[in-house]
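Residues determine shape. Next comes a sample protein:
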Amino acid sequence: MPSTNKYAQEYIQTICKQIRFKGIRNNIARELSDHIEDQKNEYIRQGFDEEIASLKAVEQMGDPILVGKQLDRTHRPKMEWSILSLAAILVLMGGIVQFFLSGVNASKSYVFSHFLKYAPIGIAAFVYLYFFDYTLLVRYSKLLYLILFLATLAGFLISYRRNGVYIHVYYSALLFIPIFAGIIYGFRNKGYYGIIVSGVFYAGAAFLCFLGPSFSSFFFLTVCCLIILTVAIGKGFFGCNEKVALAIVYVPTLITLFLAILIMPPSLQTRFYPELDPHGYGYLPLMVRRLFASSRPIGKAILEGDLAQMSIDRFLPSWNTDFMLTYIIARLGYIAGFIIVAVMFVLILRMFISVMKQKNAYGFLLSLSACLAITVQAVLFVLSNIGFISTFAVILPFISFGGIGFVINMILLGVLLSVYRRTDLVKDKLQGVPGSKPLFTFEDGKLIIDFGQYLDRCERRKSISRFYKNNV
């Protein structure tokens, strides 16, 4: 007869071999070991010696193959099929849109072949991130931040400007957002110090946007980071007074915003008041409004005056990129535009629903950051393309022309679904954001017993006991 410890280990190994998701095996093995230990102690209290008690504790667990298969069904990764389906529809729509735009004039005939080249890369990136263990990101969030920061600086030497802006800054800002979520998580339970240092990390990324200079990148980066930080404070991540924490975040933000408005150059003022310069900086937003107002449900917009006989692509700058939706609405009718927007915002709704289902702290923050990065781009793009707000140089995720933007948005979607896939598999409670304190600690000469940690362990053991009672 093998030794008791070896017998228990072989039993647990047999169970774990039945569980296909390898990432959860160590947690289950630990829970099984705790459960066997509890049962062994119970048999010892009944009068059995330790060796017999250990063997009986293992034997009462049941058939290891059966138990393993039942645990495999319980701890199986999830797939959010609605998000995957909607994203696939949008990618297909993006291909159709690029095919349509490539036939408008000869100068843009390459856009569809460009889409065909980058679509497989984006899909491959999505698949890789979907199966990637996202918990690794939090361990290396500061390193990733440093690498991205230095890479963005290097990009100023090798990248190029489009309309006076270094285009790589936009893509860096998108990647900074999920990294920022990892940085915030790394400072959990650090109090006001954690909030301030998180703000310093944001300021570094914002500084790169100013170097761009990319107002659009700065805007969506700021909005996303503010929301993530506000939610983290509201969830008690930093373990400090909520009102004071929010004041630390928003008082400097509002002061900075006020000063920025005072010194805002005329080119930025026209983003909010295009009528100030209708023939200069304000021309484009006013033209978008005119096209949208002249559009019909189906068919080409009815234009008057000097534009009546002109092709839309001749007087609408960036008609195939920044104002692709405006062009489609003016050329095909706003029903076509509405279909694209509707699918996009149903996807966004489903993404937010998946975020709210997250049960672990870092998964919640990371999926929220990916969801916000996609959402803010889409909202700004749609609002600027219908003339509701002044122009923002952003892309419509999965639809707009641009290979790097497509790949990065597919990465963000892959991260979000990777978190959802492990919703019930990563043990890190959202509420309270527990730390890693031991049961007994000494502070200021006093013995402190953290019953929360002890009760958590007891609850885990009770839960696995209930599993055997109900399933074995």
About this structure: Residues 361-385 form the longest helix (25 residues). The chain is about 70% helix and 5% strand. Strands lie at 161-162, 165-166, 440-443, 446-449.
